[in-house]
């Protein structure tokens, strides 16, 4: 097996194998230093753990100048790392494409793991709310689609999220109460237009609050939060949106998404779309 030199772009670091003290890593592509040929491949490099070559010496999305032996079957034996963080135009172009497509995960020990959705430019996670069985979608609306800028901004969003989750029972109650105070009369108006036997009964605030169920929480800039509730048929399936600010501890608005009472005055709402029993959850 003849030694050769390659400039390699690393994809992922493999497992440390205990029985023979070997580690491995997958390549995205490499350049043969002798021919200057670019090869895009999922070839693997292996090396024996030692003081010279540790498990931490090879990292994902880094470019290295390596001395290797070709073991066949798309596998190289790593002999030495000749240079780290090598500049290579061909591999840097591939690296940029990989970084754009790669998933970005940000983890906060007390809050959980968030994955960046590059299409919406937000970090998403599912977190427990008032009980172990109640899980909500949480979005950090970073407005960034790359790892570096996301990491620069995410701290402020975590601070806001932590404020809410430290007092989540209180926030849940405040958001629902505000919505009930501003929207219960509208729910009563809609009920009047239904075929329900209870069409002339008022939608009381306590009933309105009991029906609401938090679905998602979006964290915006400057302490702003947007809570989206399942209306549970209070408004024929339209979501209830409540906005607040954690910095001044104030709730600013509560609306029914895409809802216009005038549209429902034109036709009778079927009984199946209106909750008819006050004690039913």
UniProtKB/TrEMBL annotation:
Domain DUF2262 stretches: 109-254
InterPro entries in the cross-refs: DUF2262 (IPR019260), DUF7021 (IPR054286)
Sequence ranges assigned to domain DUF7021 in this UniProt record: 20-98
Residue ranges the record marks as coiled coil: none
Name under which the protein is recorded: DUF2262 domain-containing protein
């Amino acid at each position: 097996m003849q030694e050769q030199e390659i400039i390699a772009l690393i994809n992922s670091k493999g497992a440390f194998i205990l029985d023979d003290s070997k580690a491995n890593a997958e390549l995205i592509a490499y350049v043969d230093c002798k021919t200057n040929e670019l090869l895009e491949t999922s070839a693997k490099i292996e090396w024996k753990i030692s003081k010279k070559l540790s498990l931490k010496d090879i990292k994902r999305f880094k470019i290295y100048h390596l001395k290797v032996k070709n073991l066949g079957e798309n596998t190289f034996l790593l002999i030495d790392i000749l240079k780290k963080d090598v500049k290579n135009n061909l591999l840097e172009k591939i690296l940029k494409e990989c970084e754009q497509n790669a998933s970005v995960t940000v983890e906060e020990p007390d809050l959980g793991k968030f994955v960046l959705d590059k299409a919406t430019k937000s970090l998403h996670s599912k977190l427990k709310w008032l009980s172990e069985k109640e899980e909500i979608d949480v979005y950090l609306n970073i407005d960034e689609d790359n790892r570096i800028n996301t990491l620069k901004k995410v701290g402020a969003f975590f601070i806001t999220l932590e404020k809410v989750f430290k007092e989540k029972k209180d926030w849940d109650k405040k958001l629902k109460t505000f919505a009930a105070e501003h929207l219960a009369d509208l729910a009563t108006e809609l009920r009047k237009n239904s075929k329900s036997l209870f069409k002339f009964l008022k939608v009381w605030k306590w009933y309105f609050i009991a029906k609401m169920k938090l679905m998602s929480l979006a964290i915006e800039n400057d302490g702003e939060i947007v809570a989206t509730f399942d209306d549970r048929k209070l408004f024929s399936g339209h979501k209830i949106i409540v906005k607040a600010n954690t910095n001044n501890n104030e709730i600013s608005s509560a609306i029914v998404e895409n809802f216009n009472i005038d549209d429902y005055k034109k036709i009778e709402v079927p009984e199946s779309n209106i909750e008819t029993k006050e004690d039913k959850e």
